[in-house]
Amino acid sequence: MKITLSSYKLYSHPDKSLLEHLKNVGDFSKQIVNSKVIPHKKIFSDISYLIGVSHDFGKSTEAFQRMLKTGERTKKANHGLISSLFGYFIVKKFLEKIGKIDEFWYIPPITWIVINKHHGNIQDIKHEIDKLRDQRKIKFVKEQIDDIRPNINDLLQIYRKLLKDFGFEHFDVSLFFDINVDFLMREIYRKVKKIKRKMKLDFYFKILFFYSVLLDSDKIDASGSKIPPRIKNLKKNIVDNYKSQKFVEKERIDNIREMAYNEVNDKLSSCNLDEDRVFSINLPTGIGKTLMGFSFALGLREKIKSRYNFEPKIIYSLPFLSIIDQNASTISEILDFNGFKINSEIPSNLFLKHHHLADIKYREMKDQELNIIEDINKSLILTEGWHSEIIMTTFVQFFHSIITNKNRAARKFHNIINAIILLDEIQSIPHKYWLLINKVLKYLAFHFNCWIILMTATRPLIFDEGELKELVKNKEFYFNSLDRVIFNFNLQEQNFNSFKKFILNEIERSDENIMVVLNTVRSSKDLYEYLKDNLCHKYDLDPEDALDEDGICNLRDLELINMSTHVLPFYRLRRIKRIRKKNNSKRKVIITTQLVEAGVDISVDVIYRDLAPLDSIIQTAGRCNRNYDEKKGEVHVLILKDENNRFFHSYIYDPILIDITKRILSKINERISEKYFTFKSANNYYHLLKERASFDDSKEIIDNLRRLNFSETSKFNLIEKLRTISIFIELNEKVKGIREKIEKILSIKDFSRKRKLRKFRTCINNFTLSINYIGKDEIFQLPSIGELEDFRYVPIENLKEWYKVDIGFQPPQTDISMRLL
After folding, report:
1. pLDDT of 121
2. pLDDT band at 427 (very low <50, low <70, confident <90, very high)
3. What are the residues whose beta carbons fall under 8 Å from the beta carbon of 778, sequence distance 6 or more?
4. Which of 420, 423, 489 is nearest to 460 (CA)?
5. Tens of pLDDT along 213-257?
6. Rounded to whole angstroms, what are the CA distances from 605 to 256, 324, 534, 583, 630?
7. Which residues of 469-502 are buried (b: 16+ CB within 10 A; e: fewer)?
8. For the chain, what percent of residues have pLDDT higher than 70?
9. Cβ proximity of 439 and 201 under 8 Å
10. What phi-psi label fits residue 17: left (phi over 0), alpha (psi between -120 and 50 degrees) or beta?
């Protein structure tokens, strides 16, 4: 059917007719659902089309059309509620027509929920439906219907065209204008309340699914974009090809890595795809889980295609930004080696890295040509919608798109459906959320055809043994084979000042690479400054003269490196690269926090670790003698306390975790080899934790999901939120210029402000710190950016007072510094 758009006077956007927008959103929605393998796909794709063509029905009011022409906004221009009523009406009529209303009675009320909030966040349903009984709202809807009447002929023509090919052409849309609005809104109230009373997790996910499909289709069309084509010629052997060339020179650990790699991939043949939906790769740190997990995912993708005739996307999720760039680099190298680059770029619709610091320039491959999308808004829409075959992202981005009421986060949910999901370093999930994560991942696996791969050296008991398939039969063999370090546990309490002197002495008498991992940023700065002053004094150097452009203290025979969240991301990434650089002969002394705890591919000879939960200790030990050199590494665990006799671990860790750790360590000799400690101790730790821990937080959130209390999803926080303030650092004149441009944009009062800010997102994130603090007055003396109270900046003229290139953010007043955690 050819649709002529120019003859219609109704518009959805200043440059787009209402007919064109509704048709595109309906078509995109249907395209998305038709690409899935889910129960009731045919009817759900039809419903998605109807939701798409109904969602902006209310833009046909005279008030909205006038607003587009003049900019004059009135209440009657609001279109969410009136459109949701129409969507409910038309979806219900369709289900009645095909004789499916009894089976799918819940779909019309879900349609109302989804359309009603497509320009905002879904709130608790109990509050949303109260509006349906508000006489003022009922009166207002009647007024809006009257405001549409002058445009009714155009509107009827639009819907005849939209519904004709759909097989619903005989439906008379004009019936909606004769409806009893009071009765309709009461009916919707009853149906939505019925959904809520059922308390089924299924309804939460169905709402999220249809919401996601509508949001993404709407955003894509409004931005002038299209859904990018999929790239499906990924073969399992691309990892084998890469390995055969990359690892020609064998290291001592490589035979063990190859054995584990082959064992995991050999399990593909025995996978029952209907039953095996959750897999586990539980192997020691440094054994190459990234390559084996990615290879297994590619093989699983081929097997799924053969069995179910679809190719799942691959989502690779990790807890920390510090390891995302490292793993993304490995995936990029594999794709590059196998010829997937076009004009020196890997297409974004093949591989996409998404987190808050990621580049948002989208590079689309279509017909073997690379199209770089320069429009920042279009790039952002496609990036945040996860339109790619392989997505690398954070746990925050992933899990907060599944457990959410947020419009922006939920939009990508439909691209999580039918995916292979690798969850690397899964032990980072707080134990209070184990039950919640178990429930939602199993729902995704068995209702939305997802396959989950958990990867870790210390597997938490999120799933019971019968709920997952182990891809490594004899895990203990590999843990015993990699005997790389000796653990030394000193559970006697130590004063921090005495420890500083001890570490200085160890550095001076040793020629080894040393890393000290402390529990607070403040203690890491304190130790670093102490070492810098004393070591520079030894070499007769001014401490400031010893600092290089990366903020590293460069001494005659060593590099002293500070790493914490108070150091700008710009510098943190450069320092990690320096640490990993192999052709640097100087030894490294790294003073850091748990920032480098998991997954960061660095290796030192000796580690000193302030007491932490057992899984954190084991993960930290994975940075010691990582590549299994002949000489064993040493990991020293100590208990440090500050000048107030308070243990540093008490500032950040749950006392239950510490107590269980102490209980396990108290039964071990002071010195123990890795092969006798890691595997058994981790299992004991998690079993004790499951026995003692409370899962009330999980139960509360699950209950809220079942009750459709969407607003309550805000209680789910993978990262514990302290009092924080964002601080932009004017590092130089160029960065100062960026801040000035940002302030200028913030003064803009129209819709272009958000689009213009997006161009600076990467710059903003690279030069912004999120600072936890106690107290308020002094730190808020910094000037704000625009009118944003919680976004301050350090002016370039005050840079030396507030930011040090090596230790990062450092307020001039001692009392403030002491209150920063």
Report:
1. 95
2. very high
3. 811, 813, 815, 816
4. 423
5. 999 999 999 999 999 999 988 999 999 999 998 876 677 788 899
6. 21, 24, 22, 17, 11
7. bebbeebeebbbbbbbbbbbbeeeeeebeebbee
8. 96
9. yes
10. beta
3 state SS of 406:
coil
CA distance 165 to 151: 23
User: Residue 626 — very low, low, confident or very high, per pLDDT cuts 50/70/90?
Assistant: confident
Put the strands of the sheet holding 313-318 in their side by side order: 351-354, 390-394, 313-318, 419-424, 451-456, 278-282, 469-470
- The end-to-end CA distance of the chain, in Å, is 64
Provide the edge-to-edge strand list for the sheet that holds 558-563.
Answer: 553-554, 558-563, 587-592, 514-517, 606-610, 633-641, 485-495, 671-673
pLDDT > 90 fraction of the chain, expressed in percent and rounded: 77
Residue 803 to residue 208: CA distance in whole angstroms: 43
Query: Across-strand partners of 302?
Result: none
Number of C-beta neighbours around residue 760 at 10 A: 15
- The residue with tokens 């989950």 is 452
| Torsional sign, CA 146, 151, 157, 161 | negative
**389-419 residue pLDDT tens:** 999 999 999 999 999 999 999 999 999 999 9
**Which phi and psi (to 5°) does residue 792 adopt?**
-110, 170
Residue 562: exposure state from Cβ atoms within 10 A (0-12, 13-18, ≥19): buried
- The tokens describing 159, both together, are 């819907």
Nearest partner of 476 among 284, 263, 262, judged by Cα: 284
Residue 623's φ and ψ, nearest 5 degrees, are -95, 5
Is residue 775 very low, low, confident or very high in pLDDT (cuts 50, 70, 90)?
low
Residue pair 395/716 in contact (Cβ under 8 Å)? The answer is no
Burial profile 94-119: b = 16 or more Cβ within 10 angstroms, e = fewer = bbeeeeebeebebbbbbbbbbbbbbe
Q: CA–CA separation, 446 vs 37, rounded Å?
A: 12
Q: Which amino acid is at 407?
A: N
Query: Do 445 and 421 contact (CB within 8 A), yes or no?
Result: no
Q: Who contacts 447 (Cβ-Cβ below 8 Å, separation ≥6)?
A: 38, 39, 202, 205
Which residue bears the tokens 């004017």?
730
Of 727, 693, 684, residue with least CA distance to 820? 727
Asked if residues 302 and 236 have their Cβ atoms less than 8 Å apart, the reply is yes
State the Cα–Cα distance between residues 708 and 405, nearest whole angstrom.
10
- CB neighbours of residue 195 within 10 Å: 21
pLDDT surpassing 80 at residue 298:
yes
* DSSP notation for 321-358: HHHHHHHHHHHHHHHHHTT--BTTB--TTTEEEESTTS
Mean pLDDT of 166-183: 86
- Check residue 6 and give its pLDDT: 44
Q: What angle do CA 287, 292, 295 make, to 5 degrees?
A: 165
Query: Of the candidates 395, 295, 389, which has an alpha carbon nearest to the alpha carbon of residue 348?
Result: 389
C-alpha–C-alpha distance, residues 121 and 123, integer Å? 6
Residues forming a β-bridge with 397: none
pLDDT classification of 62: cutoffs 50, 70, 90: very high
Element (H, E) at 419: strand 419-424
Q: What's the pLDDT at 710?
A: 97
Helix ranges restricted to H, 35-123: 41-54, 62-70, 80-97, 107-116
pLDDT 10s digits, 126-144: 999 999 999 999 999 999 9
Is the pLDDT assigned to residue 50 strictly greater than 60?
yes
Q: Is residue 584 within a helix (H) or strand (E), and if so which, with residue range?
A: none
